[in-house]
Amino acid sequence: MTTAPDPTSLPRLTRAEHGRSAAPIRIIHLGIGNFTRAHQAWYTEHASDAAQWGIAGFTGRSRRMVDKLDPQGNVYTLITSAPEGDSFEVISSISSMHEGGDMEALRKYFVDPNVSIVTSTVTEAGYKRDTHGNLNVHDTDVSEDLAKLRNDVNASELSTVPARIVAGLEARRAAGADAITILPCDNLAGNGAAFRRVVEQAIEAVDPTLLEWTRDNVAWATSMVDRITPATTDAELRTVAETKGWYDAAPVRTEPFLEWVIQGDFPKGRPAWDEAGAVITDDVEPYEQRKLWMLNGSHSTLAYVGPLFGHESVAEAIADPKLQSWVNEWWDLAGSYLSVSSDDYRAKLLERFSNPRIHHHLFQIATDGSQKLPVRIVPVAKHALAEGREITAPARAIAAWIVFLRRFGDTQAKDVNLDEVKKLANSGDVTSAVSYLDKDLGANTVFTNKVNELVHELSSTTAA
């Protein structure tokens, strides 16, 4: 029996040996992680003018990704896993990597007139919004960052994304650089308008004179993104080592399907993403609603229900007949409120979820439910209530979230508001837990009664 090689014993993957020359940096990406490296970076890599568009990536908080990619010249192996097998390619579109809090580097790129796009994948939590969609100025990190910028526009330690954007735009204005497009790529309906709102509110709190400049020089685009991309494990490192014969400290595994729909202006140009398959449209809303409700909504349902039944991945959960029937129930309801057909999309989702080679861990998807459920589940629940329709599917998703927090709140659960939502879940006050997600929904006794019923059902019928 042949022993598999220790990946670290092999020659290191490097740009010089296996990638292409680093392109000049013209894109800043905030919150770079596996999804970005499988999605936006892939589209940029496959654009016909890729040699002209390099990405400067900034992590969310940790510098682990920087430490892994920097010795490789910021190239990495993308593993595309279809049911029949894997394919491999080296992605070279990231030209530099930085820790999220490296404000010196961020300002350096913002003042460069050749940098013309800022993209982001910072999750719903990164927008730092309150329940009304406004900048949450009561958030400690937000208030501290705003105070720092009011005191010194060149503040070097900023922890929130809106504040970092404000700092970058202040630097760009001071340098006399002109137009730039900000293109958020988060799973949030109307992400361009949502991001613009919190950034402009941060600007107003720091320096209202910057607002006039941004309205003349900043274009806000919107996008819908889709590609299932699990967290990297040692299995990916071994697969690359055994197949390609090199050590890659940061490979990414993803599915064959991908989609990017973009709406907005790019006054200083953009990569030829459309030639790589991106859709450029005047109305992204139908696409983002379909994705948010059909894919993300069912993902959240599985993320909270699946672990209660002992399942670890999406593929395991969707193979459970009971859980698949619940997902179909959700799709029946959510799909009925879409303005575009969902039949083919739904069939494709089932195929994607069932892919045995994509181990998309449910605990990963379950992160930040307090931020995700209001955009993935709540709108469909409100539509159904307004029409007097069956509400079991959305109520079940929220009930499962509550039971999930009770069972895994001290171990596996992760949420930007974990202490608060865990306390609500354990209090037994279902109405308050629902109200935390949406006050109107929490005030609807028909809905809260159904959630309460399903909380008891899930608590009593699932395995500990």
What can you tell me about this protein's structure?
By secondary structure, the protein is an alpha/beta fold. It is built from 23 helices and twelve strands. The strands form three sheets. A six-stranded parallel beta sheet has the order 5-2-1-6-7-8. The protein has a three-stranded mixed beta sheet with strand order 4-3-10. It has a three-stranded mixed beta sheet with strand order 9-11-12. α5 (103-110) packs across α8 and α12 (285-305) packs across α17 (369-376). The chain starts with 14 loop residues before the first helix and ends with a helix. The protein has two domains: 7-283, NAD(P)-binding Rossmann-like Domain (Rossmann fold); 286-461, N-(1-d-carboxylethyl)-l-norvaline Dehydrogenase, domain 2. It is globular and about 60 Å long.
Helical percent range? 40-55%
Q: Indicate how many domains the architecture comprises.
A: 2
Q: Order of strands across the biggest sheet?
A: 5-2-1-6-7-8
Kindly report the name of the CATH homologous superfamily of the largest domain: NAD(P)-binding Rossmann-like Domain
Spans with pLDDT under 50 lasting ≥5 residues?
none
Pfam families: Mannitol_dh, Mannitol_dh_C
Catalytic activity: D-mannitol 1-phosphate + NAD(+) = beta-D-fructose 6-phosphate + NADH + H(+)
Protein name: Mannitol dehydrogenase
GO molecular function, one term: mannitol-1-phosphate 5-dehydrogenase activity
